[in-house]
């Protein structure tokens, strides 16, 4: 599981961490029943305060993606819902086909959209 944090980003550190962890769960890099790194270890690895990690873990707990238990740590119990993303991808592919755009054209459009 690779998570990167950009201290110069306008997005808060804990929001970046939540997004990184959510992405790892959605991609299946971490599966149900697996333990996440201890907050202290993850904080040290990323160069962030342990409370930042605990805040991120708390958000994931509130979303029902992890459980936190004393002595057991943070354990994955769910994965983010990605059905909306899949529907949007299909709609994008359909719209691109109707417009005569290639897959490379769509990739380029996504890259441009991500830069905004």
From TrEMBL:
Coiled-coil region(s): none
SUPFAM superfamilies: Winged helix' DNA-binding domain
InterPro entries associated with the record: Tscrpt_reg_HTH_GntR (IPR000524), WH-like_DNA-bd_sf (IPR036388), WH_DNA-bd_sf (IPR036390)
PROSITE patterns documented for this protein: HTH_GNTR
Annotated HTH gntR-type domain residues: 11-79
Pfam families listed in its UniProt record: GntR (PF00392)
Keyword Iron (UniProt): no
Keywords: DNA-binding, Transcription, Transcription regulation
Protein name: GntR family transcriptional regulator
